[in-house]
TrEMBL record:
<dbReference type="GO" id="GO:0051536">
    <property type="term" value="F:iron-sulfur cluster binding"/>
</dbReference>
<feature type="domain" description="Aminotransferase class V">
    <location>
        <begin position="4"/>
        <end position="372"/>
    </location>
</feature>
<keyword id="KW-0808">Transferase</keyword>
<dbReference type="InterPro" id="IPR015424">
    <property type="entry name" value="PyrdxlP-dep_Trfase"/>
</dbReference>
<protein>
    <submittedName>
        <fullName>Cysteine desulfurase</fullName>
    </submittedName>
</protein>
<keyword id="KW-0479">Metal-binding</keyword>
<dbReference type="InterPro" id="IPR000192">
    <property type="entry name" value="Aminotrans_V_dom"/>
</dbReference>
<dbReference type="InterPro" id="IPR015421">
    <property type="entry name" value="PyrdxlP-dep_Trfase_major"/>
</dbReference>
<keyword id="KW-0663">Pyridoxal phosphate</keyword>
<comment type="similarity">
    <text>Belongs to the class-V pyridoxal-phosphate-dependent aminotransferase family. NifS/IscS subfamily.</text>
</comment>
<keyword id="KW-0411">Iron-sulfur</keyword>
<dbReference type="InterPro" id="IPR015422">
    <property type="entry name" value="PyrdxlP-dep_Trfase_small"/>
</dbReference>
<dbReference type="GO" id="GO:0031071">
    <property type="term" value="F:cysteine desulfurase activity"/>
</dbReference>
<dbReference type="InterPro" id="IPR016454">
    <property type="entry name" value="Cysteine_dSase"/>
</dbReference>
<dbReference type="Pfam" id="PF00266">
    <property type="entry name" value="Aminotran_5"/>
</dbReference>
<dbReference type="GO" id="GO:0046872">
    <property type="term" value="F:metal ion binding"/>
</dbReference>
<keyword id="KW-0408">Iron</keyword>
Amino acid sequence: MKNVYFDSAATTQIREEVVEKMTSVLKENYGNPSSTHSFGRSSKSLIEQARKTVAGILNVKASEIVFTSGGTEADNLALNSAVRDLGVKRIITSKIEHHAVLYTVNQLQECFKVEVEYVDVDSMGNIDLDDLENRLKNSDKKTLVSLMHVNNEIGNMLDLKKTAELIKSHGALFHSDTVQSIGHFNLDLNEIPVDFTAVSAHKFHGPKGVGFAFVRRNSGLKPLIFGGEQERGHRAGTEGVHNIVGLEESLKLAYENLEEEKEYISSLKKHFISKLKEEIPGVKFNGTCEDFENSTYTLINVCLPVSQEKALMLLFQLDLKGIACSKGSACQSGSDQGSHVLNAFLSEEDRKKPSLRFSFSRYNTKEEIDYVVECLKGFIEA
């Protein structure tokens, strides 16, 4: 049995260079960054250097980077503060956002009576920007729009700059979950007028448990976690220095190798699509998977011609063959309700069929793809 990992949208294998860097910090830089002695100053300098590195990559100011425990906290920080502190009375989002956004919005609606609207999504899972514009026109309430850049389940990409400019032209705030895009695409946040973004290191071969929020200067955002004055008062709690340095190193390596790795991973995706079409008649691709201009190169979401009854055993059978992938999003793998993303736009007929997300990294090979397609074909024909 082989071990084949095609679930990098859930989490990535950490780079060896990152492990080495983090191990060194754990051994040598153990001082509390808030302490004023030399041990503390050594740790603090590593954090501030990491902040400068991240800011330089995104072309923003170091003061606009707030380190967090990951993308979920960064989303919560922006959304909660927007309503609680910035006077937002209405949130426009979509039904295909990550649950870190959707569940937070639900909570804000319940606790603060904020008005929530869901922008239309077309039959391919794309955000309807005309509908968004109409919604922005039709209210004078202070509004925040929350729309992700790259969808974590189907890979559809939002035109971030065009969307941000539309939102800003109507005086609204814009939050975007960029967990699936930063580390995989060049984003100049000085040129894209987004107010808040969320990032997680483990999506680009870094450690789990660390990420950051980009918070536009002078936004007025207040902390979600209270205590000490860490992160310039934006996020209390002693910083995990080794994790922050791991984030820095993994993001730096991601962009140093971006073009080469993008070309390689794109070739894997093309090969996967080609082999599936060749070997499995009736296969479909959810969202804009086949459109390399409007979909991320890092994943595909496949609807397989399998009966509802037989589909129940599909993931189990793949796991027995050493294949890791996701039915929808890994963040909801314990749920039997199906993917909220796919339910938002798939036909009733296709919702009854199994859909799998295969997501790729620099560590995958075409031979692994051939093995997966062979296993899928065998399962379908059995």
